[in-house]
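Here is an idea for our session: we take a single protein and study its fold together. To get us started, please write out a protein record for me. Once you have written the record down, we can walk along the chain together.
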Amino acid sequence: MTGSLVFLTPLGLVAAAALALPLAGLAFASRREESARRLLRLPAPLAVQRLGRAAALAAVPLVLGVAATQPALRSKQTTRVRTDAEAFFLVDISRSMSASRTPSSPTRLARAKDDALRLRDAIPQVPSGIATLTDRALPMLFPNADPNVFAATLRSAVSVEEPGPTTSNVLATTFCQAETCPLGSLATQNFFGAGTRRRLVVLLTDGESGPLDLQLLSHELGTTKLVIVHVWSPTERVYDGTRPEEGYHVHPESTALLAQIAQAVNGHVFTEGALGAAAAALRTDLGSGPTKVLGRTERTRTLAPYVALLALLPLAYLLRGSVTRGLAASLRELLEELLDLSRVNAAVRARALLARPADR
């Protein structure tokens, strides 16, 4: 990445020509002041004081003129992508993924989406896709090198049971059974590009699934790597408004089930609190490989507002005496008003005492 300082509107420096006005005014006022001092036989102020005022007056329009040129930092970055590797983020969207600790807490699916974004950022050069999982795996985005496209798809196209499962089983999530193997289908149903040598599936799930055929899953995945993030807590419930649904039951065996899957396919399983380790596992499984230039991006960050703020420094120097005197005068006026009010109150009390009839 390379960067440089540029001026977006160089003609804005013409505004700095306005510094001639305060300097001319200062020269005129100095001449009149000098004449008055000679007439009154007053000593001249120190040259340092005059120099400071002149510099401050000149600095204000000069700084604003520089700000008008819109200085900015422009950086250029080359984006490279892997040509031998792809990743697919498989997100469980079954009904149980709407569970949360409280009715207002983030759901499992919301946390899974946040985790997917963080893990995607850990492999920026690897094209990544998105698929959803119930009793089938459906692609939402094929491997793409643009992280913004990934984030937009994850945000808008991944929701609980959209689409829903094809069956009405209590446990809708299916990893791999004899009749159907959704998790294994990512390796066998052209989810990845034909020439992709390194393939990685990132499964984000609560692990609450039905029967599992580990041998079939291992066969289907083959050399495709698997990293699992267990998005689950035993204290979570599915809420209907503010009340827990009676039909949902926590499945603590999900932890052991995901561990069995990871062991059977030589994969890894991590909890939500171990995303750093999960990101390291992603990078290890994908290794390093050839890249190609996808494009070059240019970013411009303006500095004009910060430069304009610098004009406040010479202004503060010029107005420091006025502000102090103004504050002091305000305090004096406030004290005088308080004293006058106390005097009025005392006079009223005295008149009331004089008007009171004498005791008999």
